[in-house]
Amino acid sequence: MNITDLIGESTEYDKKQALEVRKPKSWCKSVSAFADGSLTAFYRVGNQSVPATPSKLIELVLKGSATSYDSLKSKYSFNNMSFTKLKSTYHQKTGNQFDESDFESFGIIDSEKNLTNAGALLADESPIKHSRLFCTRWNGLDKAPGIVDALDDKEYSGGLINLLQDGTDFVINNSKKIWRKTSDGRVEMPDYPERAVLEGIVNALIHRNYLEVGSEVHIDMFDDRVEIYSPGGMYDGTKVQERDLLHVPSRRRNPIIADIFNRLKFMDRRGSGFKKILGDYRMHPLYNSSKDPMFNSDNDSFLLVLKNMNYDSSSYKKSGDKKSGDKKAAIKTTTKTLSQYEKILNYMEKDKEYGIQEFCELLQLKESRTREILKGLLDYENKIEAVGLKKNRKYRLL
Question: Taking the complete model, does pTM exceed 0.85, yes or no?
Answer without folding.
Answer: no
